[in-house]
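B., you asked whether I could sanity-check this one before it goes into the benchmark set. Here's the sequence:
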Amino acid sequence: MRGGRSDGRGRAGGARGRVGGALGAWARGERGRAGGARGAGVRDERGQATVEFLGMLPLILLTLALLWQCVLVGYTFTLAANAADEAARAGAVGADCGAAASADLPGAWASGAAVSCGAYGGLTHADVTLRVPVLFPGLVSFPFDVTADAAAVSEDPR
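And here's what the prediction gave me:
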């Protein structure tokens, strides 16, 4: 018989038999053993997930850093608005608005805070400007500021 096997399966049957045997060995957990999937030419993929994770790790860390920076920007806006409200309330009753504004600010934000207060039109106005920290509050700040303003009705001291 020309080009075939003596068992009658021919070339295609022999190839199917080898691949099927290799897949069956792989399914039975015989990877790496003689006659198992490794011996049949199937590539071993151990460690592939680790390599892919290490490749993606810088992108994952960059994404986390950007998300954290967005949280810090939002938190700075919240702190500035609260400090302006506190300053306006304090100024409306004749207290020191600068001290009231910085009383509730965390140390990293209080060091760069600028507070201005003034009364006109029956209202006490307060403006608070804070620096936005970069990743770690207290170390480095962005070159732009967050400003919030608030007003409260001036009260007559009795």
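One thing to flag: The two ends are 119 Å apart (CA to CA). Otherwise nothing jumped out at me.
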